Amino acid sequence: MIDLHFWPTPNGHKITIFLEEAGLAYKIVPVDISKGEQFSPAFLAISPNNRMPAIVDHAPADGGAAVSLFESGAILVYLAEKTGRFLPSDLRGRARVLEWLFWQVGGLGPMAGQNHHFRNYAPEKIPYAIDRYVNETNRLYGVLDKRLAGRDYIADDYSVADMAAYPWIVPYERQGQSLDDFPNVRRWLETMRARPAVERAYAKGEALSRPRDGFTEEERKILFGQTAASLRGAV
């Protein structure tokens, strides 16, 4: 059994997609980030960066004590190695998947995340910041569209690279992007969305989602006002 500390965000969805695809037994432990549950001592013990997702694997491959991991990219690699799925074992295939996985972790995710923040959440609309991140997101979509030309999936075969990128492309409209400009991304997005495991993964997240018009001031402070002092105060 794997405990998945989760909230329905793009990074959270990456892990439910893998777990559903692999058919692993898991239990969702909700971490409501708008309520500050990511600062609880129990959660910080497994995720010192106070970010979800995080997992605790109670049946690691070495048969030893439970293993906890934080950071979605590390979790995907760990689960792929545990199951022997969605990450090639040959040198070249593995290298290709890993470079695109880290392209998402180091590029698409952070840039799209800043895009979301300045377009949708920032109390002050700063044109320079919005243009900066919308344009960089657009560039990254272009990189992905070029990569997907003539391919069903990012690294040819379905892999953790696709699982990592997909949740960050789903909200393309909120990122100020049009898929009319990226036909290969559109085709891939539709292929991904139609996978039964992806449908199940998003249904798990939907069960925790709730409609909202915006964040309260307290929620905004928790989500966007964190400093080192926030972390010290939670321990």
Kindly describe this structure.
By secondary structure, this protein is of the alpha+beta class. Helices cover about 55% and strands about 10% of the residues. The protein has a 4-stranded mixed sheet with strand order 2-1-3-4, covered by helices on one side. The chain starts with a strand and ends with a helix. The mean pLDDT is about 95.
Low-confidence stretches: none
Strand content: 5-15%
Number of strands: 4
Q: From the helix content, strand content and strand pairing, which structural class follows? A: alpha+beta
Q: What is the mean pLDDT?
A: 93
Strand numbers in spatial order across the main sheet: 2-1-3-4
Radius of gyration: 18 Å
Shape: globular
Tally of helical segments? 10
Order of helices and strands: EHEHEEHHHHHHHH
Q: Main sheet?
A: 4 strands, mixed
Helix content: 40-55%
Distance between the termini: 27 Å
